[in-house]
Amino acid sequence: MRLVMKTLHPFVAASAVLVLTAALSQFTVAGQTFPVLVGAGDIASCDSRGDEITARLLDRIAGTVFTTGDNAYEYGTDQQFRECYHPSWGRHRARTRPTPGNHDYGTAGAAGYFRYFGDAAGDPRRGYYSYSLGTWHVIALNSNCRDVSCDADSEQVRWLRADLAAHPTRCTVAYWHHPRFGSGPHGGTAAMAVIWQVLYDAGADLVLTGHNHLYERFAPQDPSGRLDAVRGIREITVGTGGRSHYQVKLLAANSEVRNTDTFGVLKVILEPTRYAWEFVPERGKTFRDRGTTACH
């Protein structure tokens, strides 16, 4: 493996990180201020500079940073978080709410991941949690179903049902690593069908995922993958954090937009009754995707 030395981008001095991240939390449109989620998955490797490219995008985008897993390659060790993730995305750790991917579980129990992110990653025995941003309910789930079960009677699914019942907000977004539907080499993940059903029954609006190293936006779908413009959940895969690029393997139903050669981050503005999304590409690339959808 070719090892690339990583350094902090000059935009952020170490002493300024906390001040910067405390200020980057909201987005103002026409005099109104709304919370923002911004992030991606499949991020940091010491033999790639893609994560440094996307970290520079985060430097100038306000918001709570989400990750859709595979934060530090190849095995999510303490050393890989310290040497590969921390010099780039790590400067935004104070405002990051992560989820784990399969590469993070390359270390038993994803121990390096949980040690690095601490309380922000939730209970290490679970890896799932929720929080509020403005009027939105935000749910971070663990799609590593061999390590934390995703079955209908699992602790995670029981927790999810209770969490949704306790937060009957109009607008809900969830994020995790393995996509329920996908056109990349990994395809979709049948093990997440129960969780999709629970979210659908509760009227959730948006799901963000990674695992396939590409960008893909779907039309709103029901748990079986049928187009559902009334109650369907939109999935956006944003595996563009910097590790590498994948190509489309088999085009999935209801896939609306795809890109396979651009690193970037997804920005989601959480308005009280709708969300607006924008894919922000690395410098020099022209691909963008943006739109607005009302909450259920």
Written account of the structure:
The protein is of the alpha/beta class and 296 residues long. It has one domain: Metallo-dependent phosphatases (Purple Acid Phosphatase, chain A, domain 2, 4-Layer Sandwich). The protein has six helices and 14 strands. Strands 1, 2, 3, 4, 12, 13 and 14 form a seven-stranded mixed beta sheet that branches. It has a seven-stranded mixed beta sheet with strand order 5-6-7-8-10-9-11, with no helix packed on it. The longest helix is centred in the middle third of the chain and has 12 residues, at 155-166. It is globular. The chain starts with 16 loop residues before the first helix and ends with a strand.
Question: Which SSEs are present, and which pair or pack?
Answer:
Layout: H1 17-23, E1 26-29, E2 32-40, H2 50-59, E3 64-67, H3 78-85, E4 96-97, H4 111-117, E5 129-133, E6 136-140, H5 155-166, E7 172-175, H6 193-201, E8 206-209, E9 215-218, E10 234-238, E11 255-259, E12 264-270, E13 274-281, E14 289-294
Parallel strand pairs: 2-3, 3-4, 6-7, 7-8, 8-10
Antiparallel strand pairs: 1-2, 2-12, 5-6, 9-10, 9-11, 12-13, 13-14
Helix pairs in contact: 3-4, 5-6
